Amino acid sequence: MRIALINENSQGAKNAIIYKALKKVADGYGFEVDNYGMYTAEDEAQLTYVQVGILAAAILNSKAADYVVTGCGTGEGAMLACNSFPNVICGHVEDALDAYTFAQINDGNAVALPFAKGYGWGGDLNLEYIFEKLFCEPSGQGYPRERAVPEQRNKKILDEVRKHTLNQDLVTVFKSLDQDLVKGAFAGEKFEELFFAHCQDEALAAYIRELRA
Known about the structure:
Blueprint: E1 2-5, H1 15-29, E2 32-35, H2 49-61, E3 67-72, H3 76-82, E4 90-92, H4 96-106, E5 110-114, H5 123-135, H6 148-165, H7 170-175, H8 179-185, H9 191-198, H10 202-212
């Protein structure tokens, strides 16, 4: 599995701490982590939580990564932004139990964490525990296990609903937005290096290259 980490501007200063916790857990499971930043609060490319959603959608829809870990001060804005785009199912996760039940019951492909609210002494350990439980088992198995069949059925129903409510091609969606807003989402220091190396959607890649030109 390839995991993308994205930080928005209010929590850019915590990027190194979050990356360290995520990388430690991912290494143990044999996963790869791409750190898209922000890397510091002073980065030239300043990502808002709305742009986090844009970037997450591009990464997941192009299969540049399989999973996105992101967040903001409360995690709510990043979650809402991510869930505004096709093929992104983002859960709001505050602790290890949230992480495990979201993975097993909702089978999403992104999580948004509160990196300011409730973050205090032991915050780095809480991050590790969250990531351990998020990725400890294949997702979508149901919890408790005796609820697996109805939960998996409900997930399929949700996927079908989202096909009708979020059914536009992502390039079409991006083109309908303010282009400076979208361009800013792809302005990170290492975006080009990380994204284009793994992107599997040529139409999306062509649009982003043209936008950045």
